[in-house]
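Reposting from the mailing list since nobody answered there.

I have sequence plus structure tokens for a pair of proteins and want to know whether others read the tokens the same way I do. The first protein:
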Amino acid sequence: MYRHVLIVEDDDSLRQIVAANLRRRGHRVGEAATATQALAALVDERPDLVLLDINLPDLSGWEVAREMRQRALDVPTIVVSAAGAAPNRLAELRPLAFLAKPFALDELLRLAAGAATTPAPATV
């Protein structure tokens, strides 16, 4: 199980619902509404899983993922987005999984529990 999850999501309601569900299952949860907040939290909090929205108000989630790689912040990442993901982007950034919004909360919780850790990105 991933103990400390950072949720990067600009939709306050969705972020709070996901955070509450993760906390009920024993995860420590950090929250960020922007890419800037996410990058700071990655350094300060050192999560062991990131739930990353793509459409953020300041930078894209793809840019956050690239910055993570440049900073050698090797944290498994689940991309969560209403926008589709091109196969070449998934291949480049290799997220643990891609969940299209709207997604089944149970599937996200299963992934956070570590039940689907595979080297290749899984599209759900």
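The second protein, same order (residues first, tokens after):
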Amino acid sequence: MRSTRHLKMDFIFAPEIKSDLDRIIEKIGLAYIKRQNLVAFKSFGSKSRAMARIWSLPRIWQLALQTEAHYCIEVISEKFAKLSQAEKEKVLIHELLHIPKNFSGSLLSHRRKGRTIDKKAVDKLYKLLQKNG
């Protein structure tokens, strides 16, 4: 009889991803993002189809914990590791675009009034990143 045991999903801090995020934020001018309140993780064992995800700390939890808004960017290590450096940077840019300019703890959807988080938006910022080194 085969085991029905499920593999556990796990997270670890990812300082190298955080370093990439900090560089991207600086180079493409996302100064509204409080870098000290942004945490990067690698996950292992996820069944998600995504390459990366962003998690927020909603206002109710900010009040309960008496803290400011924070965001976690999780890269799905099994998928993210296979990407080229350029594709990794584009994935990280995509996740950063979900953070609103007021850094409130909410998340922006892919489609909203007058703006979208899509390949065109990401490519535009990626070109800026390349230009600014």
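Reply #1 (J.P.):
I read it the same way you do. The chain has a mean pLDDT of 93.
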